[in-house]
């Protein structure tokens, strides 16, 4: 991780769960982290904990920004703030997602739209803006999309339905593959990793974790660190992290 010391990472959904654990490990690795989420109070409380627990060299490395990721203007404002205050983005972690319970055949259109806006459109906007930032500065950055094993196989579990979650994650898988090809075509040196967790214990999955084996958010965060730590000539295209029983 030495190559990323004092670089800037943008983590979406940084107020809890996987995003919070990724933020913690990045800061431990001396990376500056901008966190985006609607829960600004949670992020500020987390900021206090980080500053109290870390030594002086690792304080003030977390920059929380309130952002509704279904609102493009909020995203663009966040990137503008990063450019004005921290020069630009070197690492993008597309982590934020929404999971709506229930069947598609009984679903509400508003839930369809919210899922696709958060899980597909927001990552696409963030990728576009991050790549623009990296190319403007000649940075060989890294993009990591936190996907899901449901982005590869829409496994049916009786009585457990996740609406458009699996289809949206399939779309994120396809997006990751296409952007990998685009980055190669323009010879940017920018890498993209598609990281697909199995069931992970977060606030969003509490009910499911009482029924099935799961991994912890810190396990997924370690996967992010691994993908960032490989030599520059190596690309971790796809990384899946699941409970051994899955």
Index terms:
single chain, 246 residues, alpha/beta, seven-stranded parallel sheet, two-stranded parallel ribbon, 9 strands, 44% helix, globular
Summarize this, please?
The protein has 246 residues and is α/β, with parallel strands linked by helices. The chain has helices at 17-28, 40-53, 72-86, 109-137, 165-185, 206-209, 217-229, and strands spanning 8-12, 32-37, 62-66, 91-94, 142-146, 191-197, 200-201, 215-216, 238-241. A 7-stranded parallel sheet has the order 3-2-1-4-5-6-9, sandwiched between helices.
Largest sheet: 7 strands, parallel
Q: First CA to last CA: what distance?
A: 30 Å
H-E order:
EHEHEHEHEHEEHEHE
Radius of gyration: 17 Å
Given as residue ranges, the uncertain stretches (5+ residues, pLDDT < 50) are none
> What's the β-strand tally?
9
**How large a portion of the residues is in β-strands, by DSSP E?**
15-25%
Provide the residue-averaged pLDDT.
93
Number of helices: 7
Q: If strands are numbered along the chain, what order do they take across the biggest sheet?
A: 3-2-1-4-5-6-9
- As a percent range, the share of helical residues equals 40-55%
What shape does the CA trace take?
globular
Structural class: alpha/beta
């Amino acid at each position: 991780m030495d190559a990323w010391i004092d670089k800037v990472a943008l983590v979406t959904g940084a107020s809890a769960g996987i995003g919070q654990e990724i933020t913690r490990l990045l800061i431990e690795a001396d990376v500056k982290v901008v966190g985006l989420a609607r829960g600004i109070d949670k992020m500020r409380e987390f900021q206090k904990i980080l500053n109290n627990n870390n030594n002086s060299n690792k304080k003030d490395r977390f920059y929380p920004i309130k952002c509704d990721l279904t609102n493009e203007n909020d995203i663009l404002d966040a990137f503008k703030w990063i450019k004005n205050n921290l020069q630009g983005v070197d690492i993008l972690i597309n982590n934020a997602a929404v999971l709506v319970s229930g069947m598609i055949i009984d679903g509400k259109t508003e839930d369809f739209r919210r899922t696709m806006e958060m899980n597909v459109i927001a990552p696409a906007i963030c990728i576009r803006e991050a790549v623009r930032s990296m190319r403007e500065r000649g940075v060989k950055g890294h993009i990591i999309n936190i996907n899901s094993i449901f982005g590869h196989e829409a496994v049916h579990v009786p009585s457990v339905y996740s609406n458009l979650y699996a289809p949206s994650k399939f779309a994120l898988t396809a997006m990751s593959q296409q952007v990998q090809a685009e980055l190669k075509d323009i010879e940017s040196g920018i890498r993209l990793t598609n990281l697909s967790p199995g069931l992970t214990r977060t606030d969003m999955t509490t009910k499911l974790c009482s029924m099935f084996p799961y991994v912890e958010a810190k396990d997924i965060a370690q996967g992010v660190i691994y993908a960032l730590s490989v030599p520059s000539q190596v690309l971790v295209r796809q990384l899946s992290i699941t409970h051994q029983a899955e």
